[in-house]
Specification:
Elements lengths: L1 H22 L3 H8 L1 H18 L3 E2 L2 E2 L7 E10 L3 H12 L4 E6 L4 E6 L3 E6 L5 H9 L2 E9 L2 H10 L4 E6 L4 E5 L8 E6 L1
Parallel strand pairs: 3-6, 7-10
Antiparallel strand pairs: 1-2, 3-7, 4-5, 5-6, 8-9, 9-10
Helix pairs in contact: 1-2, 1-3, 2-3
Length: 194
């Protein structure tokens, strides 16, 4: 993958140089531009640079920089110490009531859910992973949950960027994948295909 990325950067640099030279009136570039072959070459490089920037193709080799199609933010999770206090604060600020509390034992959390896509979460057990995270990092954004069109492509894309998959779950109406926060600037990312 590193070789492909280096080759991509080299082709983009060459294409940019040709495009810059072809727009000026400088010796070889001007002569090259004036020939049918030269015009075609310049157009081909300009097109290749555009395609590479958008992750389309490289000499028949697919180079899909970003396969993941994020459809929307499903919800965000904010880790809090006191669920009742945080629920009252956010309800007062946002003018809406949360539903819950709900429990999700697999993630070791109890949470309140807000209709606009905000969940307030607190550790379910005093010594579980959520409690350790809260102790180590304090309150704040804990998880970003994104709807994707194809979970398998999204997982492959995340892993190709060195992001560690830490869990998968198949539910009756959805599939999810959760990724490690150490690889994502301290935030868990969960992808969901519904």
């Amino acid at each position: 993958m590193l070789g492909v990325l280096l080759l991509t950067k080299a082709i983009i640099a060459i294409g940019n140089s040709i495009a810059q030279l072809s727009s000026g009136n400088q010796g070889f570039a001007s002569t090259l531009k004036d020939t049918a072959f030269g015009k075609d070459m310049v157009l081909a490089f300009e097109d290749m640079v555009k395609q590479l920037r958008h992750g389309i193709i490289l000499s028949g080799l697919k180079l899909e920089v970003n396969k993941m199609k994020v459809e929307k933010i499903h919800h965000v999770a904010i880790l809090v110490k006191d669920l009742e206090k945080a629920g009252k604060l956010y309800s007062d600020l946002l003018g809406m009531e949360f539903s819950g509390p709900h429990e999700q034992k697999a993630l070791d959390v109890k949470f309140l859910s807000f209709p606009l896509g905000i969940n307030l979460v607190t550790p379910l057990t005093p010594d579980g992973p959520s409690a350790r995270t809260l102790e180590r990092r304090g309150e704040g954004l804990s998880m970003l949950i994104l709807n994707v069109s194809n979970i398998e492509e999204a997982i492959a894309d995340m892993e190709s960027h060195g992001v560690k998959l830490v869990g998968r779950e198949e539910r009756p109406s959805s599939k999810t994948a959760t990724f490690h926060p150490k690889d994502l600037c301290g935030v868990f990312i969960e992808l969901i295909e519904e």
